[in-house]
């Protein structure tokens, strides 16, 4: 807080710290300004806009009174995913022919669904019969957190430093083969002196 100062002085102070002078409340008298990094400020504002609340959608899961247990389990897992994502789930059970006279099967099935998904969903519209269909609406119990961007390095696991490689053994030094013995030659005889050459000539 620097109090009321002139615009030139405010700009000078912003330049001294390498930042920008941003007008926060232009309608005030005098206007309120702040020394900040304007580029970083814009980036944070855009990031907050991207992290807006999840737009809730209505998903439908259809069942039959005689739905196979394996298929029923798959549909329940799908409904759980929808609720965890923050969407509403409408369960619809279709009755055909004489099945309409056994609505108790639908009521029992929907009660099992309510119990199985109680940790992620709660009943907004209890089971009711509409013609040949019985419907029920579940809503998520918790509001999902805004999605954040995952960084590439988030999935990378920290690797332990590799131990240094042991120094490789030095290659064996090739020693030269011993030289073959040379035959001994007779020592050269000394040249005869001039006197002896003269005697032999006489």
Note down, in words, how this protein is organized.
The protein is an alpha+beta fold and 202 residues long. Among the domains are: 7-50, Roll (Ubiquitin-like (UB roll)), CATH 3.10.20.80; 58-140, Translation initiation factor 3 (IF-3), C-terminal domain (Translation Initiation Factor IF3, 2-Layer Sandwich). 31% of the residues lie in helices and 21% in strands. It has helices at 7-16, 38-50, 69-85, 103-116, 194-201, and strands spanning 20-25, 32-36, 58-63, 88-94, 121-130, 133-140. The strands form 2 sheets. It has a 4-stranded mixed beta sheet with strand order 3-4-6-5, covered by helices on one side. It has a two-stranded antiparallel sheet with strand order 1-2.
Q: The CATH topology of the domain at 58-140 is what?
A: Translation Initiation Factor IF3
Strand order, largest beta sheet? 3-4-6-5
CATH architecture tag of the domain at 58-140: 2-Layer Sandwich
Percent range of helical residues:
25-40%
Low-confidence stretches: 148-161, 166-177, 183-188
Largest sheet: 4 strands, mixed
Q: Any idea what the CATH superfamily of the domain at 58-140 is called?
A: Translation initiation factor 3 (IF-3), C-terminal domain
Shape: rod-shaped
- Structural class of the helices, strands and pairings? alpha+beta
């Amino acid at each position: 807080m620097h109090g009321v100062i002139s615009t030139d002085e405010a700009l000078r102070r912003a330049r001294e710290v390498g930042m920008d002078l941003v007008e926060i409340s232009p309608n005030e008298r005098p206007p309120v300004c702040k020394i900040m990094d304007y580029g970083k400020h814009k980036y944070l504002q855009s990031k907050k806009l991207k992290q807006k609340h999840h737009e809730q959608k209505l998903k439908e899961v259809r069942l039959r009174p005689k739905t196979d247990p394996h298929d029923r389990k798959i549909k329940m897992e799908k409904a759980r995913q929808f609720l965890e994502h923050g969407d509403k789930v409408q369960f619809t059970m279709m009755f055909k022919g004489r099945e309409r006279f056994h609505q108790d099967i639908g009521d029992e099935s929907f009660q099992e669904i309510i119990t199985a998904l109680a940790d992620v969903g709660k009943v907004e519209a209890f089971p009711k019969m509409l013609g040949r269909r019985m419907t029920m609406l579940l809503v998520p119990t918790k509001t999902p957190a805004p999605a954040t961007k995952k960084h590439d390095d988030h999935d990378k696991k920290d690797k332990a430093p590799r131990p240094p490689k042991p120094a490789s053994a030095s290659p064996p030094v090739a020693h030269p083969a011993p030289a073959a013995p040379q035959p001994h030659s007779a020592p050269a005889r000394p040249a005869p002196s001039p006197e002896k050459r003269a005697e032999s000539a006489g």
